Amino acid sequence: MDFELSEDEVALADGMRRLCAGRFPLDRIRAAEGERVVIDPSGWSELADAGVFSLRLAEDAGGLGLGTAAAAVVFEELGRALVPGPILASHLAAGLVEGAADGKVMVGAVHKPRAHGAAPVVIEHLGSLGALVVVGDDALALLDPAALDAVAVDRSLDPLTPLWRVDHLPAGDAVGGPDDAARWRRDASVLGGALLVGLAAATVDLAVAYAKERRQFGKPIGSFQAVKHLCADMLVRSEVARAAVHAAAVTIDQPDVGDALRAAAGAGLLAVEAAMANGKTCIQVHGGMGFTWEVPAHLYLMRARVLADELEGSDTLAELVAERY
Amino acid sequence: MDLRYSESEESFRSGLREWLAEVLAKLPPKPSHLDWPGRRAYDTTWQRMLFDAGYAGIDWPVEGGGRGASPVEQLIYLEELERAHAPYVGVNFVGLLHAGPTVIVEGTPEQRARFLPPILRGDEVWCQGFSEPGAGSDLASLRTRAERDGDEYVVTGQKIWTSHAEVADFCELLVRTGPEDSRHRGITWLILPMDRPGIDFRPLRTIAGSTEFGELFLDGVRVPVANRLGDENDGWRVTMTTLSFERGTAFVGEVLQSMELLRGLRAIAQSTGAWDEASVRRRVGHLGAELDALWALARRNVSQAARTGVPGIGGSVYKLALSELRQRIADLGMDLAGSAGLVFGDIPGARNGPVGNLEIVSTWVHSFSRTIAAGTSQIQRNIIAERILGLPKG
Ligand SMILES: Cc1cc2nc3c(=O)[nH]c(=O)nc-3n(C[C@H](O)[C@H](O)[C@H](O)COP(=O)(O)OP(=O)(O)OC[C@H]3O[C@@H](n4cnc5c(N)ncnc54)[C@H](O)[C@@H]3O)c2cc1C
Fold this sequence. Notes:
The structure holds 2 protein chains of 2 kinds. By secondary structure, chain A is of the alpha+beta class. Chain A is built from 10 helices and 9 strands. In chain A, the strands form 3 sheets. Chain A has a 4-stranded mixed sheet. In chain A, a hairpin with a 2-residue loop joins strand 8 and strand 9 (219-220). The longest helix of chain A has 36 residues, at 178-213. By secondary structure, chain B is of the alpha+beta class. Chain B has 3 domains: 7-88, no CATH class; 126-232, Butyryl-CoA Dehydrogenase, subunit A, domain 2 (Beta Barrel), CATH 2.40.110.10; 251-388, Butyryl-CoA Dehydrogenase, subunit A, domain 3 (Up-down Bundle). In chain B, 48% of the residues lie in helices and 14% in strands. In chain B, strands 1-4-5-8 form a 4-stranded mixed sheet. A 4-stranded antiparallel sheet of chain B has the order 2-3-7-6, with no helix packed on it. In chain B, helix 1 (7-23) runs parallel beside helix 3, helix 4 packs antiparallel against helix 5 (109-121) and helix 9 (315-337) packs antiparallel against helix 11. Bound molecules: flavin-adenine dinucleotide (FAD).
């Protein structure tokens, strides 16, 4: 048992961080705010070349044959850098949908609506998608996005996650049964959780940097205890969620060490909370600046809300843990 | 990241499991929590049984009487003891979990040989004399004075909140050896034998109605210089080591114990029908997720300590999160108890669940001390902000 990151995992994280810094610096990402396409094909293929989608696919299937722990480390960096696009769904679709693993096709996902006549279905990144996975309770189905009768949403909460609205979602072609659907949800919890932990950690850095630099009453605001304690709680939330996500990822790779379903649900639950609470706190620490469009604090919060939607709801996750405790 | 235990670790586990199954049945009945001599006898008897079987000081060095195994085996040890509902360390808390570990890191070979084995054998019990009436959170302002007189220090002053001092043989004592205003530059870490003349202990009653701690008065108490850990005036550094054990590893077992408690509360909810309410299930699930996360964090801290020898500053994150979580678990217990929660004791004839009424109520009352003892939550937040995040001192 050694729960520190291995040398390989550290190298993987460093590599992804470097790729993000070089290819996806924040100002370049932000240039696409409000656009219908927020990541261009060349950016997507660089992610594919770095193994973001094929990482867990077996080597003989063209993947890197790595585990979920390795993927979690990579996804944390993608979250931290706020890299946009249907990253999670495309990764989960590798091996299931032709072209997902090598980045030839962008794959999105949507929860299957539970009742007819419920609220309209909202689909992320539809305009860029080559395939759409409908995640049901006990099946995965595949839809052709081009065939959908979809209306673009004027403005989305996260300016880097363009949305489309669909009134009727066809059933699609079955691509997976109950086990595949369960596995999809479990892995979405862990790797979506990793993206969220990245967001949560990034907001700690952002808030702390501002608290050191902004001065009021003749000193840095970070010397005021009320501000300090906000920042300390941010770190606690992101470190606790990070440990949960890492443990869940390792438990998927090493099934003998625990209950992967319970660990995954708990990790998703805590990661959503950490990223949401940290996003809000980050705005607060910035004062009026935090409420400006310019300061990126809001982008982390809004992305957290998007990812929270890609996971099962917090109530469902909590009940899942309770059932298996 | 690897959470698997090796073959030799697993065989350690199964040996321990077998031994526990056999030996726990032979334990004497638990004494009342107000009977301190009885508690000492019970806790030290258990410690002696562990020692005789080779299960004392799992990750302590062999020269100190320990097993010389890894911190990972110490984790397995904690898991198995909790699983078997073995007794808690009790009065051996200070000796086993932070004074002893400090002696291992900071002591001379003579000190290690003198003080470590009796802790493991259950022969000697330790207490902690850090806090003073004027020095709680601001520990570096402590005033208990020690004057050098030949090969002894003469100590005069007052300590407070000293837990189970009435049954302790030694006290890890912080004294001022530098000038009055020298703060952390003038502190020395001493091992005070509790049988010396000039020591007076007066118990204080806690909100639990018990006398777990009290005031320790020291009037010209002579302590051999040989009982000094580290150099004179270098005690603050030694104290940081002690606190890193107290905050980093001493409460690792508590997360496992809290998991047992939560499972017990879940069983109660199921038997009373409260489980039919989604809000109760979600609360249990949320608390369970947090406990799982803290167990993961504990394993991360232990992995780090296994590499560096001393738990890192991350212990403050763990200590803060666990003590606050513990209070919310205790709240759930009280909510499930309903009006039985008004009774500070077990209720004769009441359904015999895995967690009795006394445990629920007592856990709740004691939970308020968690965010105070070993450094308050506010102090942990200050430490996280200043020492981990690098925010300026205010
Ligand atoms: C059950 C129990 C057992 C204990 N056992 C021992 C023992 O065996 N040996 C021992 O030495 N000590 C022991 N302690 C003492 C414990 O370490 C102290 O109580 C603790 O460090 C707080 O000090 P204080 O009680 O003087 O509170 P104070 O320091 O007076 O604090 C009062 C309040 O002010 C807040 N506060 C103080 N300073 C700051 C600051 N800078 N920023 C923000 N808030 C601040 C605190 O958080 C707290 O809420 C024990 C305490 C308890 C409750």
